[in-house]
Amino acid sequence: DRSKLTPMHQHYVEVKEQYPNALLLYRVGDFFECFFQDAVIISRELELVCTSKEGGKEIGRVAMTGVPHHALERYTRLLVEKGFAVAICDQVEDSAQAAAEKRMVERQVTKLLTPGTLTDEGMLSARRNNFLASVVITGSHWGLAYADISTGEFCTTQEKDLDSLTVELLRLQPAEILFPVNAPDLNSLMRP
Predict the structure, then answer these.
(1) 10 Å Cβ neighbour count for 106?
(2) Model confidence at 105: pLDDT above 50
(3) What are phi and psi of 77, to 5 degrees?
(4) What are phi and psi of 28, to 5 degrees?
(5) Is 92 strand, coil or helix?
(6) What share of the chain is helix, strand, coil (3-state, %, to 5)?
(7) Beta pairing class for 176-178 and 132-138
(8) CA 182 to chain centre
(9) For residue 135, pLDDT beyond 50
(10) Which residues, listed in sequence order, are joined to residue 65 by a DSSP beta bridge?
(11) Of 106, 115, 172, 180, which alpha carbon lies 20 to 30 A from 92's?
């Protein structure tokens, strides 16, 4: 029951529902914290201690892990390298103002990081493109669009031979590939 959570945890859950496929790092003071299943995943993947925090009188303690705000880039880079999407929910107002008004600090997702959407130099390889690719398959035809948003490079191509799609994807080595929700299973399309 969400209403039994603390106000901060209620907000965390509301934000998490907007980004269900991303790990949510939520700014609390000098740390970016995560809770519930995200805390367990981040703790495991980054080899951090998973602790707990009071989630509400009737809820009890909930899983929590966190990283210092000054080390956020390092930890998010590691998560993205492992293939995770990461939503950064930061404080968007002065905490002193919120404290003076006796209310919770306003927070919003300010950045969504996925393997193909990186633009920060510290998270990119200088030796290769960081392509975000999108594939559409209709019958025996396919279309491919790919972009490196850090450089502005954008290209498209299409063909009939599905084997050439595999070759093209291997050549590009995209960091992330987007498929339509209703996309056919590629294995079922390949010739035996």
Answers:
(1) 13
(2) yes
(3) -60, -45
(4) -135, 100
(5) coil
(6) 35, 35, 35
(7) parallel
(8) 22
(9) yes
(10) 34
(11) 115
